[in-house]
Protein backbone atom coordinates (compact mmCIF):
# COMPACT_ATOMS: atom_id res chain seq x y z
CA UNK A 1 0.00 0.00 0.00
CA UNK A 2 1.38 3.38 -1.02
CA UNK A 3 0.05 6.76 0.01
CA UNK A 4 -0.22 9.49 -2.61
CA UNK A 5 -0.33 13.21 -2.03
CA UNK A 6 -3.01 14.93 -4.07
CA UNK A 7 -3.44 18.69 -4.55
CA UNK A 8 -6.43 20.74 -5.72
CA UNK A 9 -5.79 24.37 -6.65
CA UNK A 10 -7.86 27.49 -6.04
CA UNK A 11 -6.50 30.41 -8.05
CA UNK A 12 -7.45 33.21 -10.42
CA UNK A 13 -6.69 33.09 -14.13
CA UNK A 14 -7.38 35.69 -16.81
CA UNK A 15 -6.78 36.45 -20.48
CA UNK A 16 -3.00 36.98 -20.25
CA UNK A 17 -1.54 33.58 -21.19
CA UNK A 18 1.95 34.57 -20.07
CA UNK A 19 0.64 35.46 -16.63
CA UNK A 20 -1.43 32.27 -16.53
CA UNK A 21 1.61 30.15 -17.39
CA UNK A 22 3.59 31.85 -14.64
CA UNK A 23 0.85 31.10 -12.12
CA UNK A 24 0.59 27.48 -13.31
CA UNK A 25 4.34 27.11 -12.92
CA UNK A 26 4.17 28.54 -9.40
CA UNK A 27 1.33 26.18 -8.43
CA UNK A 28 3.21 23.20 -9.84
CA UNK A 29 6.25 24.26 -7.80
CA UNK A 30 4.15 24.66 -4.66
CA UNK A 31 2.53 21.26 -5.22
CA UNK A 32 5.93 19.66 -5.74
CA UNK A 33 7.22 21.24 -2.53
CA UNK A 34 4.19 19.74 -0.76
CA UNK A 35 5.06 16.31 -2.15
CA UNK A 36 2.04 16.08 -4.46
CA UNK A 37 2.01 13.51 -7.26
CA UNK A 38 -1.27 14.87 -8.71
CA UNK A 39 -2.28 18.50 -9.16
CA UNK A 40 -5.71 19.51 -10.45
CA UNK A 41 -5.82 23.10 -11.73
CA UNK A 42 -9.07 25.01 -12.38
CA UNK A 43 -11.18 25.18 -15.50
CA UNK A 44 -10.02 27.91 -17.88
CA UNK A 45 -6.57 28.14 -16.27
CA UNK A 46 -5.25 29.05 -19.73
CA UNK A 47 -6.98 32.21 -20.89
CA UNK A 48 -9.64 32.62 -18.22
CA UNK A 49 -13.37 31.99 -18.21
CA UNK A 50 -16.26 33.85 -19.84
CA UNK A 51 -16.76 37.36 -18.51
CA UNK A 52 -20.56 37.25 -18.73
CA UNK A 53 -22.72 34.12 -18.51
CA UNK A 54 -25.98 35.87 -19.34
CA UNK A 55 -24.92 37.87 -22.41
CA UNK A 56 -21.53 36.55 -23.55
CA UNK A 57 -19.74 38.81 -26.00
CA UNK A 58 -17.86 36.93 -28.75
CA UNK A 59 -15.31 39.72 -28.83
CA UNK A 60 -14.43 38.92 -25.21
CA UNK A 61 -14.29 35.11 -25.44
CA UNK A 62 -11.22 33.34 -24.02
CA UNK A 63 -8.44 32.64 -26.52
CA UNK A 64 -8.97 29.30 -28.29
CA UNK A 65 -5.90 27.04 -28.15
CA UNK A 66 -5.15 24.06 -30.39
CA UNK A 67 -4.23 20.82 -28.66
CA UNK A 68 -0.76 20.83 -30.26
CA UNK A 69 0.04 24.36 -29.08
CA UNK A 70 3.54 24.70 -27.52
CA UNK A 71 1.92 25.97 -24.32
CA UNK A 72 1.21 22.36 -23.34
CA UNK A 73 4.86 21.42 -23.84
CA UNK A 74 5.75 24.17 -21.37
CA UNK A 75 3.30 22.83 -18.79
CA UNK A 76 4.52 19.27 -19.35
CA UNK A 77 8.13 20.38 -18.88
CA UNK A 78 7.18 22.02 -15.59
CA UNK A 79 5.14 18.99 -14.49
CA UNK A 80 7.97 16.50 -15.04
CA UNK A 81 6.84 13.37 -13.14
CA UNK A 82 3.78 15.07 -11.62
CA UNK A 83 0.33 14.39 -13.08
CA UNK A 84 -1.33 17.74 -13.87
CA UNK A 85 -4.91 18.43 -15.03
CA UNK A 86 -5.52 21.86 -16.58
CA UNK A 87 -8.52 23.55 -18.21
CA UNK A 88 -8.51 25.64 -21.40
CA UNK A 89 -10.60 26.72 -24.40
CA UNK A 90 -9.89 24.20 -27.15
CA UNK A 91 -9.83 25.21 -30.82
CA UNK A 92 -10.91 22.48 -33.24
CA UNK A 93 -11.30 24.05 -36.67
CA UNK A 94 -14.06 26.63 -36.31
CA UNK A 95 -15.40 24.96 -33.17
CA UNK A 96 -14.51 25.83 -29.57
CA UNK A 97 -14.82 23.54 -26.55
CA UNK A 98 -14.49 24.10 -22.83
CA UNK A 99 -11.82 21.44 -22.38
CA UNK A 100 -9.29 19.88 -20.03
CA UNK A 101 -6.10 17.93 -20.55
CA UNK A 102 -4.21 15.67 -18.14
CA UNK A 103 -0.49 15.36 -18.71
CA UNK A 104 2.95 14.65 -17.31
CA UNK A 105 6.41 15.39 -18.65
CA UNK A 106 6.03 12.28 -20.80
CA UNK A 107 2.99 13.66 -22.62
CA UNK A 108 -0.80 13.72 -22.61
CA UNK A 109 -2.61 11.04 -20.60
CA UNK A 110 -6.23 12.04 -21.15
CA UNK A 111 -8.61 14.70 -22.45
CA UNK A 112 -12.16 15.86 -21.75
CA UNK A 113 -14.60 18.24 -23.41
CA UNK A 114 -17.31 19.67 -21.16
CA UNK A 115 -20.58 17.91 -21.92
CA UNK A 116 -23.13 19.97 -19.98
CA UNK A 117 -23.20 23.67 -20.92
CA UNK A 118 -25.09 25.97 -18.50
CA UNK A 119 -26.77 29.31 -19.11
CA UNK A 120 -25.41 30.91 -22.30
CA UNK A 121 -22.21 28.85 -22.51
CA UNK A 122 -23.64 27.29 -25.66
CA UNK A 123 -23.00 30.59 -27.42
CA UNK A 124 -19.27 30.27 -26.76
CA UNK A 125 -18.69 26.50 -26.87
CA UNK A 126 -19.81 23.30 -28.52
CA UNK A 127 -20.67 20.49 -26.11
CA UNK A 128 -18.55 17.39 -25.71
CA UNK A 129 -20.29 14.03 -25.92
CA UNK A 130 -18.42 11.48 -23.83
CA UNK A 131 -16.96 10.62 -20.42
CA UNK A 132 -13.96 8.30 -20.32
CA UNK A 133 -11.40 7.33 -17.68
CA UNK A 134 -7.70 6.82 -18.42
CA UNK A 135 -4.66 5.34 -16.70
CA UNK A 136 -2.04 7.53 -15.01
CA UNK A 137 0.92 6.96 -12.67
CA UNK A 138 -1.33 7.86 -9.70
CA UNK A 139 -4.24 5.62 -10.69
CA UNK A 140 -7.13 5.65 -13.14
CA UNK A 141 -8.57 9.16 -13.51
CA UNK A 142 -11.65 10.70 -15.11
CA UNK A 143 -12.25 14.43 -15.57
CA UNK A 144 -15.33 16.63 -15.25
CA UNK A 145 -15.61 20.35 -15.99
CA UNK A 146 -17.72 22.40 -13.55
CA UNK A 147 -21.43 21.95 -14.52
CA UNK A 148 -20.73 18.31 -15.49
CA UNK A 149 -20.62 17.40 -11.81
CA UNK A 150 -24.21 18.58 -11.30
CA UNK A 151 -25.33 15.45 -13.16
CA UNK A 152 -24.82 12.17 -11.24
CA UNK A 153 -24.53 10.23 -14.49
CA UNK A 154 -21.30 12.03 -15.35
CA UNK A 155 -19.23 10.82 -12.40
CA UNK A 156 -21.07 7.48 -12.38
CA UNK A 157 -20.00 6.85 -15.99
CA UNK A 158 -16.39 7.55 -15.05
CA UNK A 159 -16.59 5.29 -11.99
CA UNK A 160 -18.04 2.47 -14.04
CA UNK A 161 -15.14 2.97 -16.45
CA UNK A 162 -12.79 2.25 -13.56
CA UNK A 163 -11.95 5.78 -12.42
CA UNK A 164 -10.52 5.80 -8.89
CA UNK A 165 -10.05 9.57 -8.92
CA UNK A 166 -12.49 12.08 -10.43
CA UNK A 167 -10.84 15.41 -11.17
CA UNK A 168 -13.42 18.22 -11.20
CA UNK A 169 -12.02 21.38 -12.81
CA UNK A 170 -14.21 24.43 -12.24
CA UNK A 171 -14.68 28.13 -12.86
CA UNK A 172 -17.72 28.14 -10.59
CA UNK A 173 -19.11 31.52 -9.50
CA UNK A 174 -21.35 32.58 -6.67
CA UNK A 175 -25.03 32.89 -7.55
CA UNK A 176 -25.57 35.45 -10.29
CA UNK A 177 -29.35 35.71 -9.90
CA UNK A 178 -29.67 35.57 -6.11
CA UNK A 179 -26.57 37.06 -4.53
CA UNK A 180 -26.13 36.43 -0.80
CA UNK A 181 -24.52 38.93 1.62
CA UNK A 182 -22.06 36.28 2.79
CA UNK A 183 -20.38 33.59 0.70
CA UNK A 184 -21.29 30.98 3.32
CA UNK A 185 -24.96 31.73 2.64
CA UNK A 186 -24.63 31.57 -1.15
CA UNK A 187 -26.70 28.92 -2.92
CA UNK A 188 -24.00 28.06 -5.45
CA UNK A 189 -21.40 27.83 -2.69
CA UNK A 190 -23.51 25.20 -0.92
CA UNK A 191 -24.19 23.29 -4.12
CA UNK A 192 -20.52 23.28 -5.12
CA UNK A 193 -19.58 21.54 -1.86
CA UNK A 194 -22.63 19.27 -1.94
CA UNK A 195 -21.89 17.97 -5.43
CA UNK A 196 -18.23 17.30 -4.60
CA UNK A 197 -19.12 15.22 -1.55
CA UNK A 198 -22.11 13.48 -3.14
CA UNK A 199 -20.22 12.43 -6.28
CA UNK A 200 -17.45 10.96 -4.11
CA UNK A 201 -19.79 9.15 -1.70
CA UNK A 202 -22.25 7.74 -4.22
CA UNK A 203 -19.45 6.30 -6.39
CA UNK A 204 -17.01 5.57 -3.55
CA UNK A 205 -14.16 7.33 -5.35
CA UNK A 206 -11.79 10.20 -4.58
CA UNK A 207 -12.92 13.59 -5.90
CA UNK A 208 -10.32 16.30 -6.46
CA UNK A 209 -12.12 19.59 -6.96
CA UNK A 210 -10.36 22.75 -8.15
CA UNK A 211 -11.89 26.16 -8.77
CA UNK A 212 -11.08 29.70 -9.75
CA UNK A 213 -10.98 32.56 -7.27
CA UNK A 214 -11.35 36.32 -7.71
CA UNK A 215 -13.74 38.05 -10.10
CA UNK A 216 -14.39 38.32 -13.82
CA UNK A 217 -17.01 40.64 -15.24
CA UNK A 218 -19.87 40.52 -12.77
CA UNK A 219 -18.96 37.11 -11.36
CA UNK A 220 -17.23 36.18 -8.10
CA UNK A 221 -15.59 32.76 -8.17
CA UNK A 222 -15.95 30.60 -5.08
CA UNK A 223 -12.58 28.95 -4.59
CA UNK A 224 -13.40 26.06 -2.22
CA UNK A 225 -10.89 23.66 -3.74
CA UNK A 226 -10.89 20.34 -1.92
CA UNK A 227 -9.96 16.68 -1.84
CA UNK A 228 -12.84 14.37 -0.88
CA UNK A 229 -12.44 10.76 0.21
CA UNK A 230 -14.59 7.85 -1.05
CA UNK A 231 -16.88 8.16 1.97
CA UNK A 232 -17.77 11.74 1.06
CA UNK A 233 -15.50 13.16 3.76
CA UNK A 234 -13.51 16.33 3.00
CA UNK A 235 -9.83 15.56 3.59
CA UNK A 236 -8.42 19.00 2.75
CA UNK A 237 -9.84 22.31 1.52
CA UNK A 238 -8.90 25.91 0.77
CA UNK A 239 -12.24 27.50 1.70
CA UNK A 240 -12.64 30.71 -0.35
CA UNK A 241 -8.95 31.59 -0.41
CA UNK A 242 -6.45 30.94 -3.17
CA UNK A 243 -3.98 28.14 -2.51
CA UNK A 244 -3.68 24.37 -2.51
CA UNK A 245 -5.76 21.76 -0.72
CA UNK A 246 -3.36 18.85 -0.16
CA UNK A 247 -4.30 15.42 1.19
CA UNK A 248 -2.30 12.22 1.53
CA UNK A 249 -4.08 8.89 1.13
CA UNK A 250 -3.70 5.40 -0.25
CA UNK A 251 -6.33 5.72 -2.98
CA UNK A 252 -6.81 2.01 -3.74
CA UNK A 253 -6.90 1.09 -0.03
CA UNK A 254 -9.42 3.82 0.85
CA UNK A 255 -11.70 2.83 -2.02
CA UNK A 256 -11.50 -0.85 -1.09
CA UNK A 257 -12.33 0.01 2.54
CA UNK A 258 -15.32 2.13 1.47
CA UNK A 259 -16.65 -0.71 -0.69
CA UNK A 260 -15.94 -3.55 1.73
CA UNK A 261 -19.54 -3.95 2.95
CA UNK A 262 -21.59 -1.84 0.56
CA UNK A 263 -20.22 -1.69 -2.97
CA UNK A 264 -22.44 0.75 -4.83
CA UNK A 265 -21.14 -0.04 -8.31
CA UNK A 266 -21.54 -3.80 -7.81
CA UNK A 267 -25.05 -3.35 -6.45
CA UNK A 268 -26.38 -1.18 -9.27
CA UNK A 269 -29.53 -2.41 -11.01
CA UNK A 270 -29.52 -0.57 -14.35
CA UNK A 271 -32.52 -2.55 -15.61
CA UNK A 272 -34.72 -0.87 -13.00
CA UNK A 273 -33.76 2.68 -13.98
CA UNK A 274 -36.31 3.88 -16.49
What are the main properties of this structure?
274 residues, alpha/beta, Nitrilase/N-carbamoyl-D-aminoacid amidohydrolase, seven-stranded mixed β-sheet, six-stranded mixed β-sheet, 6 helices, 15 strands, 24% helix, C-N_Hydrolase_sf, Aliph_Amidase/BUP, Putative amidohydrolase, hydrolase activity, acting on carbon-nitrogen (but not peptide) bonds, in linear amides
Strand content: 25-35%
Number of structural units classed as domains: 1
CATH topology, anyone? Nitrilase/N-carbamoyl-D-aminoacid amidohydrolase
- From the 3D coordinates, which CATH architecture would you assign? 4-Layer Sandwich
End-to-end gap: 40 Å
CATH hierarchy class name: Alpha Beta
Shape: globular
Pfam families: CN_hydrolase
Keywords: Hydrolase
GO molecular function, one term: hydrolase activity, acting on carbon-nitrogen (but not peptide) bonds, in linear amides
Protein name: Putative amidohydrolase
Short description:
The protein is an alpha/beta fold.
What would you say this structure looks like, in words?
InterPro entries: Aliph_Amidase/BUP, C-N_Hydrolase, C-N_Hydrolase_sf. This is Putative amidohydrolase. The mean pLDDT is 96. The protein is built from six helices and 15 strands. 24% of the residues lie in helices and 28% in strands. Helix 5 links the parallel strand 8 and strand 9. The strands form three sheets. Strands 1, 2, 3, 4, 5, 10 and 15 form a seven-stranded mixed sheet that branches. The protein has a six-stranded mixed sheet with strand order 6-7-8-9-13-14. The protein has 274 residues and is α/β, with parallel strands linked by helices. The protein has a single domain, classed as Nitrilase/N-carbamoyl-D-aminoacid amidohydrolase (4-Layer Sandwich). The radius of gyration is 17 Å and the shape is globular.
